[in-house]
Amino acid sequence: MFEKIRRLFVIKTKFEVYLITYALALGACERGKLYLDQYPGYGGWLLFVACTGAVFMAGAKMLDAIDYQQAYGPD
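-> structure tokens emitted (75 positions)
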């Protein structure tokens, strides 16, 4: 029973990684817009770029993990 539930939360394909990255990017852009309202000027833009940059790094790491898992197995 728990194995079936656990499998729902395992990322298996690159397509799933792209969907998750897209969802993270939407949230990061929304947070970045709030930062632009709270901190006008360069400070807000730097925080906006930091939010979106973190999503790019997370997406790249997840893609690398899928490649690694396909090459070497799940363990």
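The radius of gyration is 16 Å.
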